[in-house]
Amino acid sequence: MNQIEIRTGTRREMVDITAEVAGVAEGGGDGLCHVFVPHTTAAVVINEHADPDVARDLTAAYEAMVPGIDFAHAEGNSDAHLMATLLGSSVTVPLVGGRLRLGTWQGIFFVELDGPRTRKVWVNVV
Question: Domain 18-125: which topology?
Answer without folding.
Answer: Jelly Rolls (2.60.120)
